[in-house]
Amino acid sequence: MKIGIAGCTGRMGQLLVREVTAATDLYLAGGITRDKENLPTNVPILKDAEDLFAVSDIVIDFTAPEASVHHARVAASTRKALVIGTTGISDQQMNDIREAGANAPILVTPNASLGVNLLLKMVKQAAQRLGPDFAIEIVEAHHAKKVDAPSGTALALGKAAAEGRGLHFATHAVYDRHGHTGARDTDEIGFAVVRGGDVVGDHTVMFLGTGERIELTHRANDRALFAKGALRAARWLASQPPALYSMQDFMGD
Fold first, then answer.
1. What is the pTM of this model?
2. 33-87, pLDDT tens digit by residue?
3. Integer angstrom CA distances of residue 251 from 54, 102, 119
4. Are 171 and 232 found together in one domain?
5. Is residue 103 located within the same domain as residue 228?
6. Among 2, 121, 143, 146, which one carries the catalytic annotation?
7. Phi, psi dihedrals of residue 212, rounded to the nearest 5°
């Protein structure tokens, strides 16, 4: 299977290049990048997304939200599969990607880790079983260079908790507590963000009841796990019909 990498000079792009090159069943078709000064010697650099999709069976995209929307539209026009691992995608941008999914198989995930996606299932089940007697709080930590907050993974965990609890996420998520906030509302889903150092990604979902607390945690120690997860999803996605998919679809939920 021929793999194209959008953003091939980024942190995730470089890891994907390494993993694709090491795989016996994958071929690195090429890459695109906005960085024209530090071009890799082991990746065929193509002019634009149209050229990349033309030579690839599937494209993996860890870039920026605006670029990911464009890549989804190119995927739709070429009817080629696309894995998007970009975070910070807005609701409107997701709608645009969903429209593109009518003509191409597109998988969007804020976190390609298999462990995190198992955690999503566990959080949904815990929220459902524990009920409103347990407050839900989410704490995430990332490296100092991460530009979006809360992380896409933290938001996905919050949405899983809301779904399990039967809540509308947008109206119950709380991102800022400062000053005299008053007592905590029973159905709040609170977020706390930590940035600093070289933390790859830590996420903890806390269920706080009276006299007891349950914490579900995932810690990423090596960014390569995201590349490995994205490639496993890509192998699956290549044989799927046009639609918008998630890692939960890949994992059989």
1. 0.82
2. 998 888 888 899 999 999 999 999 999 999 999 999 999 999 999 999 999 999 8
3. 28, 21, 12
4. no
5. yes
6. 146
7. -155, 155
- Does the annotation count 142 as an active-site position? yes
Same domain as 74, residue 7: yes
Name the active-site residue from 142, 159, 203, 218. 142
* Boundaries of domain holding 138: 114-220
Specify whether 32 is located in the same domain as 122. no
Q: Is the pLDDT of residue 32 over 90?
A: yes
Q: Give the C-alpha distances (Å, rounded to integers) separating 18 from 11, 28, 52, 72.
A: 11, 10, 18, 24
What total of structural domains would you count in the chain?
2
